Amino acid sequence: MSTTYYHIHNELALKAGKGDNHAQFELYELYYKAMFNTAVGIVNDSMQAEELMQNGFMTAFTKMDKWHQKSSFGAWLKRVVINECLDYLNKRKLDTVSMEEKQFADTEYEEESEPEYSVEEVKLIMKGLPQGYRTILSLYLFEGYDHEEIGEILEISSSTSRSQYLRAKKKLIEQIKTKAYVG
């Protein structure tokens, strides 16, 4: 039995899928900030993120038949925007960190007490990390995906997602410590 979720914006989304420009504009106004933040967290370039966000909306509005209301429109739109970003990165073959499972054995990581930083400070420090690390950290920390979902999105196993996250987190903490000593 398939579950269909009713969400506050479902009717608006259905109208948008039928070409209703007013409904499309309303959905854009409701979601553009969140989708932009998602995109910029992955591609680390605000101009490119804006273009990818726009492409995500266009894709969503033209392929509304792919949304089967198994999740809210916002969740589905976020997935579309994330896929736009990942497609862009794959085409550009940026300096990504390889995510092959054999390369990432589960590693133990000992928690240390860290100085507290704001989200904006952490995002700024993350800009210096390799693309693969930024992607995992953004999806896990800022977008709230769990490792199973990240694995599905990036087409890797959940254990690879966990390992990659731990390595990214360790690298981020190193960068934070470096900044603490310098700044």
What would the keywords be for this entry?
183 residues; mainly alpha; Rna Polymerase Sigma Factor, Chain: A; 2 domains; 66% helix; elongated
- Taking pLDDT < 50 over at least 5 consecutive residues as the criterion, the unreliable ranges are 94-112
Cα-to-Cα separation, first versus last residue: 57 Å
CATH superfamily descriptor of the largest domain: RNA polymerase sigma factor, region 2, helix turn helix motif
**Strand residue content:** under 5%
Helix content: 55-70%
Mean pLDDT: 80
Rounded to the nearest angstrom, the radius of gyration is 18 Å
Shape category? elongated
In terms of structural class, how would the helical and strand content be classed? mainly alpha
> Which CATH architecture of the largest domain?
Orthogonal Bundle
CATH classification class of the largest domain: Mainly Alpha
Count of helical regions: 8
Biggest β-sheet description: none
Quick take:
With 183 residues, this protein is mainly alpha-helical.
Give a structural overview.
By secondary structure, this protein is mainly α. It folds into two domains: 10-92, RNA polymerase sigma factor, region 2, helix turn helix motif (Rna Polymerase Sigma Factor, Chain: A); 101-182, Arc Repressor Mutant, subunit A (Orthogonal Bundle), CATH 1.10.10. It is 66% helix and 0% strand. The chain is built from eight helices and no strands. Helix 1 (10-17) crosses helix 2 and helix 2 (21-43) packs across helix 6. It starts with 9 loop residues before the first helix and ends with a helix.
